[in-house]
From TrEMBL:
It holds the Pfam family DsrH. Gene3D superfamilies: DsrEFH-like. One of its GO terms (cellular component) is sulfurtransferase complex. This is Sulfurtransferase complex subunit TusB. It comes from Marinobacter adhaerens. It comes from the Bacteria. The keyword Lyase does not apply. Keywords: Transferase. InterPro entries: DsrEFH-like, Sulphur_relay_TusB/DsrH.
Length: 96
């Protein structure tokens, strides 16, 4: 049995139209993983707008100068092994 119904992996920055499409597609039981430029959303409280667990890839957060634990961010920072585990525990994966 999978823990996550659908893992949404978003790599687009907050202002990209696909980001809004992704947020609108989230359903209960889903999770959101922010990677690449999508991690910039954690500084804008995007994760507060959704009712699913939000994860951000820590190396991407650090690479974009947001630090090890960005102020005001409620997303859980994860490393690559945890990202793989999230993907493996999801019934479906959608990359945005």
């Amino acid at each position: 049995m999978s823990d996550i119904k659908t893992l949404h992996i978003l790599n687009k920055p907050p202002e990209h139209p696909r980001t809004q499409q992704c947020l609108e597609a989230l359903n209960p039981g889903d999770a959101l993983l922010l990677i690449e430029n999508a991690v910039l959303a954690i500084t804008m409280s995007v994760e507060a707008e959704v009712a699913v667990p939000v994860f951000a890839l820590a190396p991407d957060v650090v690479a974009r100068g947001l630090g090890q634990s960005p102020r005001g961010a409620s997303a859980s920072l994860v490393d690559f092994p945890v990202m793989v585990n999230l993907t493996a525990s999801a019934q479906n994966v959608i990359s945005w």
